Amino acid sequence: MRITLSRRGDYAVRAILALAEHEGGLGEARGTQRGFLSTRRIADRMHIPAPFASHVLADLVRAGLVIGGAGRRGGYRLAVPPGAISILRVVDAAERAAGPPRCVLRGMPCDPDGRCAVHDTLDGATRAARAAMDATTVADLVPEARH
Q1: pTM, entire model
Q2: Cβ-proximal residues to 109 (8 Å cutoff; 6+ apart), any chain
Q3: In whole angstroms, what separates CA 18 from the centre of its chain?
Q4: What is the pLDDT of residues 70-129, one digit of tens each?
Q5: Beta-carbon contacts of residue 29 (< 8 Å; ≥ 6 apart)
Q6: CATH code for the domain in which residue 35 is found
Q7: Which residue has the higher pLDDT, 33 or 86?
Q8: What secondary structure, in 3-state letters, does the chain show?
Q9: What's the domain range around 64?
Q10: In degrees rounded to 5, what are phi and psi of residue 102?
Q11: Residue 118 covered by a domain
């Protein structure tokens, strides 16, 4: 079994990592001004299609994780320190609620009154994965951004 992110969640994690690397000094060495990184640079650096990068960056702005700056010298930068941003928070900002969990045995939404034989096992695995992402910060993944 493999636990995977949606494409949107994957791109949001990549985008936040690019911003953390940039704030850790990598972007400043390349001459970007005012601490902002353009959508194009984020997309190119992290291999994200540019239109998708705009969408996930908007998700991250709405979640209060990123600040957007308008204009020719605008772009994006982190709104909070990398050590205060869990990967779970990034994923939750980008991924849409999937609706009620689906029952493995019945192929439809889980019945709150009668759980199937594997419900508790899969629910536990989901909770463990979310706990691991919550315990991992952006700073844990981008050492030069630890400040």
Answers
A1: 0.82
A2: 99, 100, 101, 102, 103
A3: 11
A4: 877 789 999 999 999 999 999 999 997 666 667 767 777 777 676 777 878 888 888 899
A5: none
A6: 1.10.10.10
A7: 86
A8: CCCCCCHHHHHHHHHHHHHHHHHHHHHHHCCCCCCCECHHHHHHHHCCCHHHHHHHHHHHHHCCCEEEECCCCCEEEECCCHHHCEHHHHHHHHCCCCCCCECCCCCCECCCCCCCCCHHHHHHHHHHHHHHHHCCEHHHHCHHHCC
A9: 7-99+137-145
A10: -95, 140
A11: no
Q: Is residue 69 part of a domain?
A: yes
Is 125 part of a structural domain of the chain? Answer: no
Residue 96 buriedness (CB in 10 A; 0-12 / 13-18 / 19+): exposed
User: In this structure, which long-range contacts are made by residues 95-102, counting pairs with CB atoms below 8 Å and at least 24 apart in sequence?
Assistant: 95/5, 95/6, 95/8, 95/9, 95/12, 96/6, 96/8, 101/126
Give the chain's domain count: 1
Domain membership of residue 132 (yes or no) is no
Mean pLDDT confidence for 44-65: 95
